[in-house]
Write a structure and sequence with these properties.
- The protein is an all-alpha fold and about 110 residues long.
- The chain has helices at about 1-25, 25-35, 50-60, 65-75, 95-105.
- It has one domain: Cytochrome Bc1 Complex, Chain D, domain 2.
- It is built from five helices and no strands.
Length: about 110
């Protein structure tokens, strides 16, 4: 009986350790970190820019939300979330911007 309990604990520990690592290796979060999006944005709270889950909530129901956000990611914007402009991210490819936009729209 104790060996089963130890096995369950070991499995739970492994899952707890591997869970965040898998999330960080997902394309959207990893790309956001690599491209410094997280310098101005956080998933859950406003920093210099809005919280990414707030962006998702605002645009999720729009039919062209992913394309709209990908465009804003590459070209930048101003005045939508306040006075601080979001600079253009011209180093990103359209596919990278689409990956980021798709990931953002999954956040809740």
């Amino acid at each position: 009986m104790k060996s089963v309990s130890y096995a369950v604990l070991a499995l739970a520990g492994t899952l707890a350790i591997s869970g965040p690592a898998q999330a960080e290796s997902a394309p959207g979060p990893l790309l956001a970190q690599q491209q410094n999006c997280m310098s101005c944005h956080s998933v859950g709270r406003p920093l210099m820019g809005p919280a990414l889950k707030d962006v998702a909530a605002k645009y999720r129901s729009e039919p062209d939300a992913a394309a709209y956000l990908a465009h804003k990611i590459i070209d930048g914007s101003t005045g939508i979330w306040g006075q601080v402009p979001m600079p253009a991210n011209t180093q990103l490819t359209p596919d990278q911007a689409a990956t980021l936009a798709g990931w953002i729209l999954t956040l809740k």
